[in-house]
């Protein structure tokens, strides 16, 4: 782990406590286990990958990621903490992955995407974004 963001382990996944109360910051590199399921934990995540900002709602069953392995950065909000940040009840996002632009104004999300795309440490930049918006 680095001061700015978690350093991926040999398996491609790392996490650290966030400066935002009730959250952790995580990364997953393409070296992570292909097709490894995401197990339900009641959490919601703000996700950054391949130029996109997404939200993962709380899962009630294992989620199997689709597509080829990719770099991911995320802020995982502990149960009950994300709805206030996102402005949407958790039940509306249960078992779903949605573009952040479906929840927030598209021009705001475009600016945030540009900022994250330019960041040398996307996980740290995503955490900073969450801190600013909290």
Mean pLDDT: 88
- Which strand order does the major sheet show? 1-2-5-3-4-6
Find the structural class using helix and strand composition.
Answer: alpha+beta
The radius of gyration computed from the alpha-carbon positions, rounded to a whole number of angstroms, is 14 Å
Give the low-pLDDT segments.
1-5
Number of helices: 3
String of helices and strands? EEEEEHEHH
Biggest sheet descriptor = 6 strands, antiparallel
Globally, the shape reads globular
What does this structure look like?
The chain has a 6-stranded antiparallel beta sheet. It is globular, with a radius of gyration of 14 Å. Helix 2 runs antiparallel to helix 3 (122-133). It has one domain (13-133). The chain is built from 3 helices and 6 strands. The protein starts with 12 loop residues before the first strand and ends with a helix. It has helices spanning 82-86, 106-118, 122-133, and strands spanning 13-17, 23-28, 44-49, 52-56, 72-77, 97-99. With 134 residues, the protein is α+β, with helices and mostly antiparallel strands.
